[in-house]
Amino acid sequence: MLKYKYILYSVFSIGTLLSFASCEKVIDVKLNTSASQVVIEGAITDQAGQQTITISESVPYTSSNEYPPVTGAQVLVTDDNNHSWTFTETKPGTYTFASLKAEAGHKYTMKVVARNTTYSATSTMPSLVKMDSLSIKIITFGGDDIKTVETHFKDPADQVNQYRWVLKVNGVQIKTVYADNDRLTNGNEVTNTLFYDDDDNEKLKTGDVAEVEMQCIDKGVFTYWFTLSQQTQNGPGGGVTPGNPPSNIDNGALGYFSVHTTEKKLITIN
Amino acid sequence: MIKTLYTCLFVFFCLFSSAFAQQKFTISGTVRDAATGETLIGATIKIQGAARSFGTSSNAYGFYSLSGTSAEYNLVVSYTGYQPFTKKISLTAATKLNIELGTDKAALQEVVITSSSRKNENISSPQMGLDKLDMKSLDNLPVLFGEKDVLKTIQLLPGVKSGGEGNTGFFVRGGAADQNLILLDEATVYNSSHLLGFFSTFNGDAIKDVSLYKGGMPAQYGGRLSSVLDVKMQDGNNKEFGVEGGIGLIASRIKVEGPIVKDRGSFMISARRTYIDLLLKASSDSSLNSNTLNFYDINAKANYKFDDKNTLFVSGYFGQDNIGIKDLFANDWGNTTATVRLNHVFNDKLFSNTSFIFNKYHYAIELLDADNNARVTSLIRDFNLKEDLQYYSNKHVIRFGVQATHHRIAPSDITTSGNSSFNPLAVENRYGLELAGYLSDEWKLTDKLNILYGVRLSSFSLLGPGTFNTYDSEAEVASSSTSGSGKFVKTYIYPEPRFSASYSLNEENAVKASYNRNTQNIHILTNANTGSPTDQYVMSSNNIKPELADQVAVGYFRNSKDNSFEISGEIYYKWLQNQIDYRDGAELTANANVESELLYGTGRAYGLELYAKKTKGKLTGWISYTLSKTERKFDGINHGSYFPARQDRTHDLSLVGIYNFSPRWTFSANYIYSTGNAVTYPAGKYNVGGLTTYYYTDRNANRMPYTARLDVSATLKAKETKKYQSSWSFGLYNALNRKNPYSIQFRDKKNDPTQTEAVQTSLFGIIPSVTYNFKF
């Protein structure tokens, strides 16, 4: 968050110099095309109820954003206590288990057999850190009031914690990855600001309803999301060289298997 | 190791013994500008006798020494842009002769640009890969915002690639931006940019001499892999007081110089400040006029000649950048350097310079929100002691010396107050000691064959106190040990051989070859393109091995039409070892275990550089073209195979033209073309976490669109009075208003979220500038 804030603010300040000069345009680029890859997105939460694992395929960059489901896979989740749950395909590519609640401190293993390949991954349920509240922060810059949502929570001092947030405004997900750990904030009352770029998203305005989901995630899942978030930060002079974030799933599948806590809060922008 | 050194020494002295066979006398002294008393670096001193003629050039302090057998000689001293000095001498005893050259009024009518102050130095000198910038030609070249800039001008030379649009960062022969040794009066300048790279720390007014070594580095330089940029400040006029300055669109500068004691000592103070934020303050927008955005710098130098044998120089630089948003954010950074030097002439053949140098780079970031406040500070600080000796014999110039540098890096200190989300943190300081000894000999073997050979023995020691960890393949701490203050934790010793040779086919043609090895122990960690003021510095350690580079180069050099055309071609190949990249999701800021985030690999770079230059006449200028490839290889990146480095650009072309239309009007233009940077574009896409996510295959396998730009400028000299000179410079940056790519991003289309699009950001369109310069 520290680095992110630095980049953001320095872009703001230096932006006053550059904004009169810089411009954007959509260009045609020549891209390589790769064979489609298996994408697995597995999420098991601490909320009793239906849990979902989706399996799909990547598409060439030039295709539309529709991802073919991978059907007929076998999906099994086990824990370190000899429990096992067989997921069933309820929609093409969507595999669910009707009632499952992951317990803190337990390690879960996902095994997927799809297209004659076995993919497996493990993830451990962290203990819950509760979100205390949401608030709105207003930054005045360049004649604009930029409104952002802030989350407040108390980080436990005696453990290493990683978090992810998902922000939706009026039901539409904001296209920014938020992930942070407590490396620099351990044990504190933490305020986390969910900035986003209004190039890609609608600006927050009065009357909007923002929904924040806070997840406590394990280290492997954090590295996945944090790597993705770094690639979308573009500081002066360009960001990190993009690459595929390190998945906790083996055998070359894209995606992740995340066992995490989940908690949602709403706030109306005034 | 020691044995090798002794063998070298022995060979050296065997080589000399022949020089002592005959009775010889020496003529020595200092070459200066007659009007200002500035010493002239690299002036040619020739003595022509009935039997033989030979020559040398003045060193960095204007000192020269030549020896010959007892005879009558004709002494000729020349320097580009000055009237040659000739004198009959009879060398029957050791002779002391200080020479002052008057500027050549005829030559001043035309712009003279040259890579060397000696007429055909590029043919006769064994040095290759050296480019010298003429500070006068800098005044006429068009640049962004009209701010003349040493670092932007060297990017127009072959083998030097720009760090990006309007950026002072540069890449030399495939090296990274942190592999350039940038020296200001011998002090290392760690961050040579202002305003996140749009301006360099070098104020052209205060600079006397700029030399860029791209290869064949002489043995007195060490510590970086790719290049040495040796910048020397002016000494100041020791004859009379003078003031000069300039008023530009976004910055102004002033310089004052004059004698301390006439002909014995002088001083120079030069200062510069931008006033973008003063313009912002004029804005009625309350959120803009409270922002900070400025930089300033001050160069100061003084020298005093105690007697013919001892001269003291004191010089310093201080610069600072400030950016900030009221109540939200503040960031400042800057360099400080101080150099104290004593020139001592032991005798007419042995010249010594002792330097004590301090340099520091620091930054501070402050987040000012009540619940997120933090102040992060970081610095790197060196103390440096150098002793350099130059011995002039008949056919040899022997250079030897020792250097010791003590480094301290304070990686990050975080302080917080009140109910901040952040914890205070102090990442341990790191201490290092670099020691080096060197010995080199520039030897005129025959009239045609000159060689420059030598060795630099460099060592680096990581010193305690501190806790030193090793890391396993998962980046977790594997072992940990603590060392007390001053304890040597890890030491690396490397001999660095340096060799260059030139063979003159005739007066106008020469072939040259060189080999050099360089090591580097201070590394910058950055995952931005060309660096940011908050990059982390790390030293070699138990985890980080010294970076190594071996470079070979061969070249052909040709001068024609009385040296008014210079043409050269060089081919180089460079091997790089222990290069640094980062793990996925690396956290480089305020991380005590930052060394766990690093990956190590190798690199290779090779290329062809062509250079043609016209140095005399109404129209002067140059064409430089580089064809090159730069690759890196790391386990775990790109399936462990070579991939293009970000700065890999296949073609790089610069055209520079200066046309001296009349005594009052000078027009100039430059045009650059370069292949786009190597970048990684997606090969596919998928959806995770509700977001379109891109699938990547090969690292840096794609290319940004090419960059091309035409800049033009015109300089009008106002009518000169005896006391007051002034000129106007008008410039157009990117005169064709071309949208050059700065970055490319991929995103969902706003009006059709089922599709994605590539968006190119361009920084500067056409930018006019005007600057008023004065001198009295």
Structural class of chain A: mainly beta
Largest interface: A-B, 88 and 99 residues
CA radius of gyration of chain B is 27 Å
In CATH's first tier, which class of the largest domain in chain B applies?
A: Mainly Beta
- Tell me about the biggest sheet of chain B? 22 strands, antiparallel, barrel
Q: Which geometry of chain A do the CA atoms define?
A: globular
| Secondary structural class of chain B | mainly beta
Number of strands of chain B: 51
Shape label of chain B: globular
Q: Return residue spans of chain A where pLDDT drops below 50 for at least 5 consecutive residues.
A: none
Strand content of chain B: over 45%
InterPro entries (chain A): DUF4249
Signal peptide (chain A): 1-21
Protein name (chain A): DUF4249 domain-containing protein
Keywords (chain A): Signal
Task: Provide a descriptive summary of the structure in words.
The complex is a heterodimer of chains A (270) and B (776). Chain A has 270 residues and is mainly β. Chain A starts with a helix and ends with a strand. Helices cover 11% and strands 46% of the residues of chain A. The longest helix of chain A is centred in the first third of the chain and has 17 residues. In chain A, strand 5 and strand 6 form a beta hairpin. Chain A has an 8-stranded mixed sheet with strand order 9-8-5-6-7-3-2-17. In chain A, strands 12, 13, 14, 16 and 18 form a 5-stranded antiparallel sheet that branches. Chain A has a 3-stranded antiparallel sheet with strand order 10-11-15, with no helix packed on it. Chain A folds into 2 domains: 141 residues, Immunoglobulin-like (Sandwich), CATH 2.60.40; 87 residues, Immunoglobulin-like. By secondary structure, chain B is mainly beta. Chain B folds into 3 domains: 84 residues, Immunoglobulin-like (Sandwich), CATH 2.60.40; 110 residues, Ferric Hydroxamate Uptake Protein, Chain A, domain 1, CATH 2.170.130; 545 residues, TonB-dependent receptor, beta-barrel domain (Maltoporin, Chain A), CATH 2.40.170. Chain B is 5% helix and 57% strand. Chain B is globular. About 2% of the residues of chain B have low confidence. Chains A and B meet through helix 1, strand 1, strand 4, strand 10 and strand 15 of A and strand 22, strand 44, strand 45, strand 49 and strand 50 of B. Strand 1 of chain A pairs antiparallel with strand 50 of chain B. Chain A: Keywords: Signal. Chain A: It comes from Pedobacter hartonius. Chain A: This is DUF4249 domain-containing protein. Chain B: Keywords: Cell outer membrane, Membrane, Receptor, Signal, TonB box, Transmembrane, Transmembrane beta strand, Transport. Chain B: Its main location: membrane.
